[in-house]
Structures are given as structure tokens and as C-alpha cells.
Design a protein that fits this description.
Blueprint lengths: L6 H18 L11 H14 L13 H15 L5 H4 L2
Helix pairs in contact: 1-2, 1-3, 2-3
């Protein structure tokens, strides 16, 4: 999977937005001590469950691939002139 040069920032944004999303959906909320890996996997699985993103094939499930999926998801949610999309 090709990485966007702003993918790390997109993943951070996806975790922030995804955290609010899972809380509003009633899936629970994150604690300060929750690991990055746990947050990525939890948000990824919630978005797959709600059919907002296509699941990865079983052999492709890994944290980097889930992060990539989250980055693609949040990129579609942001306005076209957002700095993370325009690269400014």
C-alpha cells in the first residue's frame, strides 16, 4: 500500500475523530493508558462493523495496514482544502 507523505498526521487525526465516533456510537471510550495499537485496532474494527470502511483480508491484518485504512478513511472525511490534504 502506498503511503501518503502526511499519513502519520492523518492517522493522528483519524484516532481523534475515531475516538469521538466510537464514544458516540456507545462502543466505549479510550483511557489515557490505552496503547496506540489498541486504539488503531478498536477504531478500525468499529468502522468495519459499521461498514464505513472495507475490511482487510485476514492475511493482511496488521497495525500498519489498519493505520493506512484509517488514514484513507479520514482523508475522505476532511474538506478538500484541509491542510492535511493539500500538504500545506
Amino acid at each position: 500500500m502506498a503511503k501518503n507523505k502526511t499519513e502519520a498526521e492523518l492517522v493522528k487525526k483519524a484516532l481523534a475523530v475515531g475516538g469521538v465516533y466510537v464514544k458516540k456510537r456507545g462502543y466505549g471510550e479510550f483511557e489515557e493508558t490505552d496503547s496506540h495499537k489498541l486504539k488503531v485496532e478498536y477504531i478500525y474494527r468499529a468502522l468495519v462493523e459499521d461498514k464505513l470502511i472495507q475490511p482487510l483480508a485476514k492475511q493482511d491484518i496488521s497495525v500498519p495496514n489498519m493505520e493506512h485504512k484509517l488514514a484513507l478513511w479520514i482523508k475522505r472525511q476532511l474538506p478538500a482544502d484541509h491542510p492535511l490534504i493539500t500538504g500545506q
